[in-house]
Amino acid sequence: MKLIEAVIEKENYSTAGQASRKIKESLVQIGVDSVIIRKAMVAVYEAEMNVAIHTNGGKLRAAIARDVLEVTVEDEGPGISDIQQAMTAGYSTAPDSAREMGFGAGMGLPNIQRNTDRFSMSSQPGTGTVIRFAISLAAHGADSLMGTSLTTDPSKCIHCLKCVHVCPTQAMRVHRKGPEILTHLCVDCTACMRVCPTDVFDFKADRVLPERKENQIFCLPEALRGQFPLLSTPETLQETLYPITGDKILFSHTPTYWMNGYLRFYQERCGGKGFKIAPLCPSISRLIQLRYPSLLPHMLPLMTPLLSLREKTIDHDLVIVPSCPAEFSQAQGIHALNKVHSVHPTFFQSLLMKRIKKEEQSRPVQTASFKADKDCLVVTGINQVCHFLDQVEHGELQDCGLVVLYACVGGCYGSPVWTTPAAIAEKRSRYYDELEGAQRDLIPLYRVQPLTPRAGARLDSDMKTAMAKLGKINEIVKTFPGNNCGACGSPSCLTHAEDIVLGRTTDYECPFLVFTQTPGQESLPEEFL
Amino acid sequence: MSQKKINMALTTLVEALGARVFVDTNLEECLIEQVFAGDRMSDLLGAVSERMLIITHLANQGMIRLVELMDASAICLLNGAPPCEALLEVAKETNTPLIVSPFGMYETCGIIYELFQGGGGSVP
Fold it and tell me: Is the ipTM of this complex over 0.85?
């Protein structure tokens, strides 16, 4: 990893651009594609000029790590009071001196946004503005983040086909060699994980703790606290955790307390009116990108809690215990300047359980119910969510205001990695907050890079071949019974035909037809008589 | 602002404009596929790509950075005004041909537009 730092002086237009030059030299050295270098240069130079023109000076830090260039630009004020306005193309507050130089077109921030793969910005009027962006240096790098992090263990599969039927995006196949996930369709919703009777599905988070470091923060899911009977005080919990994590612990990347932040944004920016979806569950965002792209304009332009948290703790190494594969996927794509480790929740829980002493468990659960969600409509469970989104897409239900959707039943407390029922885990977890008297103020950060529709199934990159394949699929599907029984290992007759044409399976026959049309079968009833 | 896609030798453009050549490294080999004219730095930054001639009034620090960072193929300044020493330096360093048209932006673009319309400058 290479670090580049530079100070940007106020109104010094001749030194602004030096950091860009240094970064360019490094990128050329590494051999990055010239188109990507150019993208990076637009973003970095615009950011530098912004600081020189609009602020009292600031500094730029850039890290080039593996396949990503990550840049943080901080300034010393005066800050931006309306970020949305500042992001508007053509809006500028540049002084004449800058305009004479050809700057001040009001295209700086939009130019940065357009040329980066991730971009965030936060500002306090009076204190200053922080801009962070990242550019993937591998060609098509941004797309690779779209994959799934679910893994399968085919040796455990008993071919019960439950996962095939439950998958909301038809990404699951169970053919002869076992389960297979079509990664371009998977949204990490855990539906398969939940129904699987033999634990075929998992994700590859570490099963060891990372080396202890000074500036390390542990970020634990709230649901973790609900996995064991209540301890007498929050301090007891801290003490129990201390040998594992040290004293820097955050219990907040699962979304309960974030809901307030999204709700406040909804009330302030949307006037509390209209149908909006709060992007809390990362899996839901991906589901909408893939299956309901027409609803993308209804997504609040905010980051998920985990990404917001990462931006806020960017100066620390982070150890995340993700509560589901979707969170794990997100944690994968967010390190450069400081490391992000992901520790498997099951492993972490087992560590913790060993330390909990029987005598410290006390008190029945007594907490007043949480109030934030009374103003949000909460829909949990991927089936319910799909049902809801189907109706919304048809133009119904759009009077429901701010909506929070979770892939897991019971929200993040109901992730299949946890064993305690969601309702109990949630109640237990809130007990600690109540005791601490914590009035948490978790505000999600603005997401400036908008979500874009995700390309679903493509038969072929070449249009002509794709059309030919489509024709073939239609031919084959006519020979199938159309009852979508799933016995072949594909979720429907149409997808089975598709799998045959795309070479995903070599089992051409329909098991249903084989059973019902064997000649011996007609004689069966006689034998019974 | 104008954009157009044909391959044309930069020397053809220099001739047609009667432009003064200030930096001639790469001049002979330079092929132009697109032309972009404008005076707003953000527009220029956003537009630059390979084989692009940039026509602009800007001859200041910002322009120096643009040449340095963005690998524009060639720069054309306007109104016969010679560029400053620093810009010349950086153009030489980055092997970017730098020419100055005797005309204003309107005429310069007009002449180049005509050339491209005729497709006359296409290169074997």
Answer: no
